[in-house]
Write the structure tokens for this entry.
Amino acid sequence: MTVLLEIAELVAAGHAEQGSKFPPALLGQPGVVEKVTEALEAGLSPEQILHEGLMAGMEVVGRRFGAGEIFVPEVLMASKAMKAGMELLKPLLGSGAASRKGVFVLGTVLGDVHDIGKNLVRMIVEGAGWEVIDLGTNVAPERFVEAVRDYRPVAVGLSALLTTTMQQMSGVIAALRSAQLEVPVIVGGAPVNERFASEIGAAYGRDPQAAVTFLARQYK
Ligand code: B12
């Protein structure tokens, strides 16, 4: 089995590192941390490990969760395993501190605690040389307004993973506009699409790279 496949399977199994007790069947076996380290040592690129290892594993989790084969506790363990791997890749994805092009304010909207996708957006946008102010999850519209006043970002990014919370995105845009803040907004997350984004007056980002492209466009 290739190391990327192993990483994907370990994410799906929720086994973060060798010392992790979950799942009991993998006790004492190498986990995501050890396998990501092995992949890096073998010369695989951080981008490939991210996409074909970590994200591939999370896709499996999404399918199993959707099909009712696994439940919230297993998904949480998988998220932890994914995050442990992301921590290792974070410093390697792009130059980081080298040049700061401007500020991007990012957050998951009110009522929503999903942050894996948002964290990937942060990592990739930071890697492309932007400063990211990450407001975290469950962020109220007023906090976006405050952050835009405080940091004067080039753009704002909103993430939502629930069909219920994606409705909050228009609330954030309305709050920004009523505070007379004309900052461009890009929205993303599994339930969001191009049509919804344009209806609420935002750009749509299918993946983190879309945010990088969007920011570059504002910058010119
Ligand atoms: C992990 C997960 C959880 C974890 C979250 C852990 C964490 N720290 O994030 C936990 C267990 C906490 C959880 C809880 C719940 N979840 Co959940 N969860 C998922 C799961 C399996 C994976 C999501 C994920 O991380 N995907 C991987 C990342 C990389 O993908 P992504 O988020 O889509 O992000 C990518 C793009 O969308 C994009 N992107 C994302 N944001 C942004 C923003 C910008 C600006 C840009 C440019 C791009 C961008 O870039 C990313 C990388 O490509 C999905 C299933 C799925 N297939 O999506 C369900 C899912 C989202 N959850 C679901 C549900 C129902 C729930 C709960 C209500 C379950 C419950 N009964 O309690 C709660 C809600 C909690 C809340 N209030 O938010 C449903 C939503 C259904 C719906 N239509 O609304 C899903 C779709 C599962 C399902 N099929 O039923 N969940």
Summary: The chain is about 50% helix and 10% strand. The longest strand covers residues 103-108.
